[in-house]
Amino acid sequence: MNVLVVGNGGREHALAWKLAQSSRVKDVFVAPGNAGTAADAVNVDISVTDIPAVVKFAKDNDVGLTIVGPEAPLVAGMVDALQDAGLRAFGPSKAAAELEGSKVFCKNLLRHADVPSADYRVFRDAESATHYLTERDDDPVVVKADGLAAGKGVIVCRNRSEALIAVDRIAASKEFGEAGNRLVIEERLVGQEASVLAITDGRTLITLPAAQDHKPAYDGDQGPNTGGMGAYCPTPLVTDEMLAGVEESVLVPTIHQMKRNRRPFRGVLYAGLMLTKGGPKVLEYNVRFGDPECQPLLMRLKTDLLDVLDAAVDGRLDEVGQLEWDPRPAVCVVMASEGYPGSYEKGYPIRGLDEAARLDDVKVFHAGTSIIDGQVVNTGGRVLGVTALGDTVAKAKLLAYQAVKCIRWEGAWCRKDIADKAITVA
Predict the structure, then answer these.
(1) For 2-93, CATH number?
(2) Assessment of whether the complete model's pTM goes beyond 0.90
(3) What is a GO molecular function of this protein (predicted)?
(4) E strands within 247-354?
(5) Is the pLDDT of residue 424 over 80?
(6) pLDDT tens digits, 10-54
(7) Which residues of 93-107 are buried (b: 16+ CB within 10 A; e: fewer)?
(8) Topology of 192-319 in CATH?
(9) DSSP state at residue 314
(10) Listed residue (7, 16, 68) closest to 42, CA to CA
(11) Spelled out in words, what is the top-level CATH class assigned to the domain 330-425?
């Protein structure tokens, strides 16, 4: 079978790499891909937002399954367009993808489904949000742009002053464009964050091992939010008992509520959780594999990924059974361009990739890279996801950073404390 992966980040490189290992796969195409997918698959020069071109390519090249990686084409209805053309696609419909595409829709659905989450208010303009903040107690809050903002539209505020600045950035200055046409202000939850992803065909759920992302830019969870500076899997913060509870009180009620709303959900349901003293609460939902959680998850997966995604598309996920996992934990460290998550310079040659690749149990997943004049260069903010397996989280971390030390380009940087929370718990 020919398979097409839509996207150009680390998640898509991991998907293409894992799918290429299937004995059932002939060619793996990635649209548009990056320098890493060019080595592990076949890149196709099609933008992730060009839905007609993706549909045409899938038809012309006998693609048996298309996996849509990023949120933007899912929210725009790429899966619907592929299915309307008689093609098989993994991912939620446009209507179901609103679970990630609109924070307001998500919060309202969580309330109706009685899923534990933070208390919130919705506002349509900066003036009403400002009035609300000045009238209430000066407590910590989180201010969120309603629409997609590449993981940067969530601003955690310690006090009213920071919240007022966040409202201005989102709703008045429109720093995130139309994503800020509405905004959510919610109570700030306290605890550790964790990511629980599940693959579903709308009836059956396969919950994956819990992971932990590191969204703030700098060590010690300081600095602005990013798309994710690293992740590890599994996390000892989520016990088997807690994971079963999340499935029962979070994932299943959400899927049932989506069905009641006539938006049946198929694909990856990703719950971003805060592990509070009162139990896990949902911070947000994503409707696709997380990036960078996907990288350590797929590094550990031993079951044929195509078999799982195939079954999900056909509505027979109940036939798959238990997935097989490498018992060793995996750690992914994101290497970023200087200036990220703000503006950054592109086009610097990346050295040491071959040296890192020679290390056992290491895979360097590419995100913001391209090949220019025969050289791999940085073209994005998050550039590489250096991922390693180890007998313990500490050993996986050590090996991942050993590989990071092999790789250099001008301005390259990373957090130095990825997975330390797991090591502290252990």
Answers:
(1) 3.40.50.20
(2) yes
(3) metal ion binding
(4) 267-276, 279-286, 330-336
(5) no
(6) 999 999 999 999 999 999 999 999 999 999 999 999 999 999 999
(7) bbbbbbbbbbbbbbb
(8) D-amino Acid Aminotransferase; Chain A, domain 1 (3.30.470)
(9) H
(10) 16
(11) alpha beta
